[in-house]
């Protein structure tokens, strides 16, 4: 009860801070995250926490906030960039003018992922004030990272912090809005396929007789239709029983040069979601085999592949102390059972788990409409989640987790 009261004194400030973050546009590919990072560090300093900017690229710094300097560490991680707002007319209120309506805060980046960052900062302040953790024994970190929305494989954000040793922790939560205890996520392979053929006039004699021209669009389409049927084996995983391996061909498609020309160029994006145990190389090899076979059937057709994103599925065991502690506290807090599951979309959790840091790659406040109009987060869940994070961190750092790895 005292912990809840400690958090509640910050409730209004937490909401106001989150609204500030949403107002600062940080759409990936359009705006650098610098203003958001600086705002996070300023809020940390106002709270009496240690805040600093750490950058591989100067205009896109990561924000790192910490309290304590002991050997047992825990990190709350969120990304500062967002996707675009899309058609603003589809929003009930302007996407970058956060508005509270009926207990929800609306705005781009609320659920994905700025609410988690705001909650993380105030979780550290509350744990410091609560006084049950010794700063000489623990290190608590909030990491606001850049460039996650480019495909969760950036070298500028999470990868850079890990490689440079800025996350000396034994546990972490990626602070997405959720209603599950997320112990992992599927992997992602995203390929850009470019088909090249030979252009001729679509009314020419040689095209009519089949003596000239190679249609890059239909050649690529034939490949995409075969890829739609691609299925690769995998071992069942108890946390992923509700999911499977999927291939989505042609999430983007472009082809042709003029309406009276046999198209000589076509491009398409292929999106593949991997289950635990499947490797990106396995998928890439299977795709290449289909491409090679179709090109052999269509003399003159050439298809190249470019790997845009390549990241593995990753998960910690459902019985890991971090998952069990989180599930217990979530049910006590909300009165509802929180299933332990893997997530369908990929995120940067694989980097943390791959670095040997047990991580829940998606666990946080109540929210919705990420990557859609009227993205929202439940206002009451902001303080509730701070209490939840604080309780999990306290219990987890008191656990003998040395024998457990990710």
Layout of helices and strands:
Elements: H1 2-8, H2 11-23, H3 34-46, E1 50-54, E2 62-67, E3 72-79, E4 99-101, E5 104-106, H4 110-130, E6 138-145, H5 158-163, E7 172-174, E8 181-185, E9 187-196, H6 205-208, H7 216-227, E10 246-255, E11 265-274, H8 280-297, E12 302-311, E13 314-315, H9 321-334, E14 340-343, H10 349-354, E15 359-360, E16 367-368, E17 376-378, H11 379-397
Helix pairs in contact: 1-4, 1-11, 2-4, 4-11, 7-8, 9-11
What does this structure look like?
- It is a single chain.
- The protein is an alpha+beta fold and 406 residues long.
- The chain has 2 domains: 2-185 and 313-397, Aminopeptidase (3-Layer(aba) Sandwich); 187-311, Alpha-Beta Plaits (2-Layer Sandwich), CATH 3.30.70.
- It is built from 11 helices and 17 strands.
- The protein has helices at residues 2-8, 11-23, 34-46, 110-130, 158-163, 205-208, 216-227, 280-297, 321-334, 349-354, 379-397, and strands at residues 50-54, 62-67, 72-79, 99-101, 104-106, 138-145, 172-174, 181-185, 187-196, 246-255, 265-274, 302-311, 314-315, 340-343, 359-360, 367-368, 376-378.
- The strands form 4 sheets. A 6-stranded mixed beta sheet has the order 1-2-6-3-7-15.
- The longest helix is centred in the first third of the chain and has 21 residues, at 110-130.
- The two termini are 32 Å apart.
- The mean pLDDT is 95.
Shape: elongated
Output the strand order for the largest sheet. Answer: 1-2-6-3-7-15
Mean pLDDT value = 95
| Number of E strands | 17
What amount of the residues lies in strands?
15-25%
Largest sheet: 6 strands, mixed
String of helices and strands: HHHEEEEEHEHEEEHHEEHEEHEHEEEH
Tell me which oligomeric state these chains represent: single chain
Unreliable stretches covering 5 or more consecutive residues: none
Cα-based radius of gyration, to the nearest Å: 24 Å
